[in-house]
Every structure is written in structure tokens, then in C-alpha cells.
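Re: the request from the purification team.
They wanted to know what the chain is likely to look like in 3D before they choose a buffer screen. I agreed to run a prediction and write the result into the notebook, where they can find it.
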Amino acid sequence: MAPLFKPKTGCDFPGCKKRHFALGYCQGHGGNYGKVGDTVLLHSDGLVEAHDPERKMFGFPRLAELMNGCSGGPELIQLLLGELDGFTGPDWEQEDDITLVALQRAAVPAVTGASKTPALVS
């Protein structure tokens, strides 16, 4: 699965109407991603291909809608797992692996001088 990129405030590239897209998909960005608050979701197909009791798939449109309504980061993972649980129902038997990794860009303090010690941000 291609990682999904969710800018914190939507895509601000001129002419782009997308609020989320596969990383590298939006033409003209030139790979310039990563403003503070932006989120990248890495996921396996087990999420979007999960079925409800009537055999309807969770799907990419639902994933996109949930991403748009969430601030990102750890909250996104909890939201997706909760929505998946409600979608599939209590008797669901997992058909595939479900892997979710949300990376959210945090503010990093500016470095004022050269340092030989690596900077760690938690």
C-alpha cells in the first residue's frame, strides 16, 4: 500500500484540491512534504479490505474520510482501530494482518551552534 499523506491543514500547493493523497502522488509538490502537524499513515491492506457482516469492505473512501476528520499521530491510530471494531462487529474473524504506523511531524527546536551530540526528539 502506498503511504497516505495528510497535511495538517489540507494541501496548500496551488491548484491542488486534495486533502490527502498517496505520498508523491500530488503533481508539482516535488517531494516537499513535512510541515509541523502533517501526518503520514503507513498501513497494510488488512484495514481497507476488512469486511463487515454483510461483506462490504472498509475501503479507501472511509479511510480518507477518517483521516480528514482527525488531527493525526497517535489519535489517528486509535480512531482507525475503533472505527474498524465498530465496522466489523463483535463476531468478526480477522482475514488479514492490520498494520498501522502514523508519523506526525513535530516542531524541532532550531540548533544555534554545532554539536557533536546527536539530537533526539521524542
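For the purification team: The chain has a mean pLDDT of 75.
Please add any questions underneath this entry.
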